[in-house]
Amino acid sequence: MSAYQAFDNEKAIEYINTLGGMFPPDAKLSCYEFGDGNLNLVFRITDQHQRSVILKQALPYARCVGESWPLTLDRARIEASALRRHGEVCPDHTVQVLHHDSEQAVTILEDLGHLSILRTELNAGRTFTNLGRDVARYLATTSFYHSDFYLTPGDKKALVQSFTNPQLCAITEELFFDDPYLGSERNHYPEELHGEVDKLRQNAALKLAIARLKQGFLSSPQALLHGDAHSGSLFVDDTTTKFIDPEFAFFGPIGFDLGSFIGNLLLNFCAQHGRISEASKRRDMHTYLLRTIDICLSEFERQWLDLCAQHGSDGTLQVAGYAEHFVRGILQDAIGYCGSEMIRRTIGLAHVSDLDEIEDTEARLRAQRLALEVGQQLILHARSCQSKNACYQLIISVLQ
Ligand SMILES: Nc1ncnc2c1ncn2[C@@H]1O[C@H](COP(=O)(O)OP(=O)(O)O)[C@@H](O)[C@H]1O
Ligand SMILES: CSC[C@H]1O[C@H](OP(=O)(O)O)[C@H](O)[C@@H]1O
Questions:
Q1: pLDDT tens for residues 367-398?
Q2: Which residues are involved in binding substrate (predicted)?
Q3: Best of 36, 42, 94 to mutate for ligand 1, by most ligand atoms within 8 A of CB?
Q4: Domain 116-399 homologous superfamily, CATH
Q5: Which of 40, 63, 67, 171 has most ligand 2 atoms within 8 Å of CB, for mutation?
Q6: Which of 205, 251, 253, 326 has its CA 20 to 30 A from that of 86?
Q7: Ligand nearest to the CA of 68
Q8: Is residue 175 lining ligand 2, measured as CB closer than 6 Å?
Q9: Boundaries of every domain in the chain
C-alpha cells in the first residue's frame, strides 16, 4: 500500500498481512471496527487462537463531525511518538506501540480489551484503589523526563519542534477557552441552563482567569503532555492503569493533564448525585473520588520533587525552594484547567457520558449546574492555593 486510504475491515486485515510478524503465518484473521472516540477509526484484529491487536487509523477529518471538519493525519505520528516516549519512561502506565506507519496514519497497539475504560467503570460506581497513585506516577514521570529540568536545552527544543501539533492544539484552545465563554454554534446544553451560561459569560473575573489559562496553554512549553488525559483515555482494572490516545500531545503547561484528570473525577462526582440514589452508597463513591484526587495531588508533588532531587540537571534546581515553587505553580495551573475541563464538558461541543446519560431530567440538570458552579469556583480561586493541601481544601470547599 502506498498512498493513504481509509481502511475498512478487509483493508485492515490486508495491511496487517503485508507487515508480517504480527501474527503467525497460518493465522486466520477476523476484524471489526469499534471506535467510539471523537476522531479516529479503531479496529480489533483477532486470529483463530483469540490473539489480537488494535489497529488505530486517523481519518483526514474529525469523525464526530464529518468531512466538513478536516484534520491533519500528522496527529497519528504525534500520538505514536508520544506513546513511545512516554512508554520509555513509564511503561507500566502507557499502552504499547507495536508498529507505526505515518503514511497510512496507522498505529498498531497492544490490545487492552481485558481492561475497562475508567469512565465506564466510574459511571457504574466501581472503584480502583491504585488509580490516584498510578496516574500521579505517569503524569510526574512523563512530564519530568520531558522538561527543562532533565533534557538538555538543545534536545528539549528539538523535541518541542517535532511535537508541534497546531491543529489539535487549536481544537483545545477553542473548545476549552473560547466556546464556553464567547458562545459558539458548537456548544450545546439544555434550555434550562441558559441563565447559568449567560451569567458565566458576564463574569469578568472568570473571563480574566480563563484568558490567563489560555495564555498558559498557548505559551508554556514546560513538558511533553498527553494532551487529553480524561477518564475515557484510561484503561483500568484492580491492578493495572494504562493511558491511551495522546494525539493532542504537545509541549505545554504540565498542570493541564493533571487538571484534565481531576476535572473528570469531579465531573463524575457531580454526576453521582443523579446516578446513585442510595445516600450511603453515593457517599462512599464521593469519598473514593475525593481520596483519589488527594492521593493524586500528593503523589504528583512528592514524585516531582523526588525526581528533581535525584535526576534534575538544570542549574535552577540549586536555588533553594525553586523546585517547590515550580511544583506549586503546576498545582495552581491544574486547579484552573480542572475547572475549565468541567465547564467545557458540560456546555461545549464534547460532553461526558457521566452527566449526559443521567436518565432523570431534573437530576441531570442539578448535576450539570453543580459542575458549572464547581468549575467556575476552581478557576476563580486556583491562584490563591499556596500548597497541595490548599488545592485539596479548595476542592472540598467548592463541593459543599
Ligand atoms: N489499545 C487498545 N486496546 C483496546 N481497545 C482500545 C485500544 N485503544 C483504543 N481502544 C478502544 O477504542 C476506543 C476509541 O479509542 P481512542 O484512542 O480513544 O480513539 P479517539 O482518538 O477517536 O478518541 C476506546 O474507547 C477503546 O474502547
Ligand atoms: C472534535 S474533538 C472533541 C474532543 O474529543 C477529544 O476527545 P477523544 O478523542 O478522547 O474523544 C478531545 O477531548 C477533544 O476536545
A1: 999 999 999 999 999 999 999 999 999 999 99
A2: 228, 344
A3: 42
A4: Aminoglycoside phosphotransferase (APH), C-terminal lobe (3.90.1200.10)
A5: 171
A6: 326
A7: 2
A8: yes
A9: 9-110, 116-399
**Whole-number Å distance between alpha carbons of 267 and 338:** 10
Asked if residue 33 has pLDDT above 90, the reply is: yes
Tell me which amino acid residue 291 is. R
Q: Which atom of ligand 2 is nearest to the CA of 175?
A: 15
Q: What's the start-to-end Cα distance of the chain, in Å?
A: 58
CA of 227 to the centre of ligand 2 (A): 10
Q: How far apart are CA 29 and CA 47, in angstroms?
A: 5
Instruction: Say how far apart CA 352 and CA 7 lie, in whole Å.
Output: 28
Residue with cell 484503561: 235
Q: Identify the nearest ligand to the CA of 61 by its number.
A: 2
The per-residue pLDDT for range 271-309, each reduced to its tens digit, is: 998 999 999 999 999 999 999 999 999 999 999 999 999
Q: Which 8-state DSSP code applies to residue 178?
A: I
241 in Cβ contact with 131 (< 8 Å):
yes
pLDDT digits (tens, 9 = 90+) for 329-341: 999 999 999 999 9
- Across 62-87, b (16+ Cβ under 10 Å) vs e yields bbeeeeeeebbbbbbbbbbbbbebbb
Looking at residue 1, its pLDDT comes to 64
Contact 331, 297 (CB under 8 A): yes
Of the listed ranges 157-161, 252-256, 274-278, 287-291, the least confidently predicted one is 274-278
What CATH superfamily is the domain 9-110?
A: Phosphorylase Kinase; domain 1 (3.30.200.20)
